[in-house]
Design a protein that fits this description.
Bound molecules: flavin mononucleotide
Strand content: 15-25%
Helix content: 40-55%
Distance between the termini: 41 Å
Radius of gyration: 15 Å
CATH topology: NADH Oxidase
Oligomer: single chain
């Protein structure tokens, strides 16, 4: 859960190599993982399992966005610590994908 109530899109975009899609999107999902929780049960496999699960969650967001005719993209290029700072995430919540969702540019039929 985001601890800040103000608009963080520009700062989040800057933390992600100034990717315009983040600054421009009306909504942006950030999936985070806490490896320690999963490691209690799965030990050294935890990182793999958390990242796989983040991928599954991402795919569901992407599929729903497509169903709603929205535009979206998976963003993995960002500075982890900057994203944590901008979103005021607890230290062990590691940001995994950032997923901006918005209105796609008008497309003409090809
Ligand atoms: C894990 C992962 C991270 C990605 N990170 C970025 C990113 O930071 N910026 C970006 O433009 N595309 C990134 N991509 C690629 C886009 O999500 C997308 O797959 C690509 O732009 C192809 O889009 P297309 O559907 O227009 O061909 C990433 C893809 C994956 C699977």
């Amino acid at each position: 859960m985001l601890n800040k109530e103000s608009d963080q899109r520009l700062a989040l975009s800057e933390a992600a190599l100034n990717q315009e899609c983040i600054a421009a999107a009306p909504a942006c999902f950030v999936i985070t993982g806490v490896y320690r929780r999963t490691a209690k049960k799965y030990g050294k496999r935890a990182r793999r399992y958390v990242q796989l699960e983040a991928g599954h969650a991402s795919e569901n967001i992407l599929l729903q966005a497509v169903a709603l005719k929205l535009g979206t993209v998976v963003v993995g290029a960002f500075d982890d610590q900057e994203v944590q700072r901008v979103l005021d995430l607890p230290a062990e919540h590691e940001p995994l994908p950032v997923i901006p969702v918005g209105f796609p540019p008008e497309r003409t039929e090809e």
